[in-house]
Design a protein that fits this description.
By secondary structure, the protein is mainly α. Helices cover 57% and strands 0% of the residues. It starts with 22 loop residues before the first helix and ends in a 20-residue tail after the last helix.
Length: 124
């Protein structure tokens, strides 16, 4: 829309070639302008609503990102702690001591057996 124009101003009539437009033509122009004004309002409302929705989504994603960063930091600290615990425990643990290949793969006597080492899970 041009600056300084009033969307409700219907007094301006563009000159038409030939004779003066009839009153039915004037009514059609007024109706067309009114429909256009309403359509423009709806369009602006949709744009505003879309911007508001995007703003809320952006805020939510920022919050989620901050929470995930906090979780990553906590998990990194937990991994460092567990690595330190493991490093301090390795010299004491006979289950992790270096073994000869004979002990790693004992001869098979009919059936296949797995040795299971249980590791306690870290509790939060």
């Amino acid at each position: 829309m041009a600056q300084g124009s009033d969307s409700n101003d219907t007094s301006y009539k563009s000159p038409s070639p030939g004779s003066r437009p009839s009153s039915s033509d004037d009514a059609k122009k007024v109706m067309r302008r009114e429909k256009n004004r309403i359509a423009a309002q709806k369009s602006r409302m949709r744009q505003t609503q879309k911007a508001d929705t995007l703003h809320l989504e952006s805020e939510n994603l920022e919050k989620e990102n901050a929470a995930l960063r906090k979780e990553v930091k906590q998990l990194t600290e937990e991994a460092k702690y567990l690595s330190n615990v493991l490093s301090s425990h390795e010299p004491l643990c006979t289950g992790l001591a270096p073994q000869t290949p004979d002990l790693l793969y004992p001869p098979h006597h009919g059936s296949y057996h797995h040795q299971h080492i249980t590791v306690p899970h870290y509790q939060h």
